[in-house]
Amino acid sequence: MNNHYKSRRRGWRRSWSFVAATTGATIGLGNLWKFSYLAGENGGAAFVLAYLICIVVVAMPVMIAEVVLGSRGRSNPVSTMQDVSLEAGASSSWQLIGWLGCIAGLLVLSYYSVIAGWSFAYVGKLLGGEFVAASAQLSGDMFNNLLAAPALLMQWQAFFLLSILLVVALGVRKGISVAARLLIPLLLVMLIALAIYSSQVGDFKAAAEFLFQPDFSALNQQALLDALGHAFFTLSIGVGAMMAYGAYVPDQRSITGMVSTVVLMDTLVSVLAGLAIFPLVFSLNMAPAMGPGLMFVAMPYGFGNMIYGNYFGALFFVMVSLAAITSGVALLEPATVWLAQQFRWWRPVAAVVMVLVVWLLGLATIFSFNIWQDIDLFGMSVFSFLDFVTANLMLPVGGFLTAIFVGWVMRKEVLRDELYVESRQIFSLWHWLLRYIAAPGVLVVFLWSLSPWLKNLFIE
């Protein structure tokens, strides 16, 4: 291994620090908000099964590849790709992967921070008893009123961004690692408690059937696309986070083993979130296919009409807020560390600059719900367009390029050196999946996602 790499400082000393931080990066609104509403829109169990397959055979091999790149480069995503490309004797153009990750991370965080702000706002609403005995109509009206107030949305977005700024500014060990080790166990305890509460007061049987008894007639092109897109979204693939965190991997640890633990915990949280949300939805005869409003309309209404629901509802949104912080930190980290290293800036200053950029970008999402709500971008609102471009285009492109570079350009002996203790069988399986399943699968679904958009563009 080149001395250039050996000289780079390791970030975490223990495997648990990496696992906790990376789990925090993957657990967030993708698990607690997006997974539930996508499952609701796409028929439940059939979507869940498709999502799990996408996780195992496509997303997880690419996630391991991203961590391997970070571990090899020991720097920000852009510099990492410059260095590993040089080592592989490949074109410096491969640094596009690093640039794409940093930019995608900032774009995702721009609308992610707005949605996270909603969860912060709802903690106070539930504690204040605003949803006690509320009707479904009132719950919907309160959500619409929040969306119609851009100044209020900006305040909550800023509050969320300040919280992740504090963590990122403190650095890898004092900020990211400490926050993850404290928050992840707390999140799991909260989620288990809420799932138990929901099973007692809601319709657990209907929720279990919806999530675990697949109806394959519900699977269609859009459901499969959503499943793969969400697999990338929830594992923070293609946004530079895994490469950035991979730079801090402890020496002589099994990357595959650590990543498998992270994926298992991430999937468990998604399923537990479904078991916490859908019993309330079905017990009050609400439709699960409510789209993005599921968490912010159905859940407050459900909690408001259950015993002690205002307290458990507030706990639910505290949990959502904390999960949003851990994944928001991961989205901010790649661009922050690039800015700090590229211009030799003090890390807190770099974090402040990137937070300001994200806040300004987030105004587009905020305004899309009110003063820009009539703007149409290829048949989508500004928010929907950003979500589509990042989740269905940028993340898969980044994942595809990563799979090609690691699977076909990097030398196998280099990959074995980074993966450390993997058996020949595990290494061969991962490498084969990366080359022949993950890369083609991402490409096919990416082109599939473009086809209706191009068709509409042609017709118009």
Task: Produce a short descriptive summary.
This protein has helices at 3-6, 15-26, 29-41, 45-73, 77-88, 96-127, 136-147, 150-169, 172-201, 204-212, 221-234, 241-246, 255-283, 294-304, 309-343, 347-368, 382-409, 412-419, 424-459. It is mainly alpha-helical and 460 residues long.
Biggest pleated-sheet summary: none
Distance between the termini: 55 Å
What is the N-to-C order of secondary-structure elements (H for helix, E for strand)? Answer: HHHHHHHHHHHHHHHHHHH
Helix proportion of residues, in percent? over 70%
- Number of H- or I-type helical stretches: 19
Rg, Cα atoms, Å: 21 Å
Low-confidence stretches: 1-9
CATH fold assignment: Amino acid/polyamine transporter I
Strand content: under 5%
Q: Quick one: CATH superfamily?
A: Amino acid/polyamine transporter I
Number of domains: 1
Which structural class do you get from the secondary structure elements? mainly alpha
For the record, what CATH class applies?
Mainly Alpha
- Form type: globular
Please state the average pLDDT score.
87
CATH architecture descriptor text: Up-down Bundle
Number of strands: 0
Describe the model:
The protein has 19 helices and no strands. It has a single domain (3-459), classed as Amino acid/polyamine transporter I. Helix content is 79%, strand content 0%. The chain is globular and about 65 Å long.
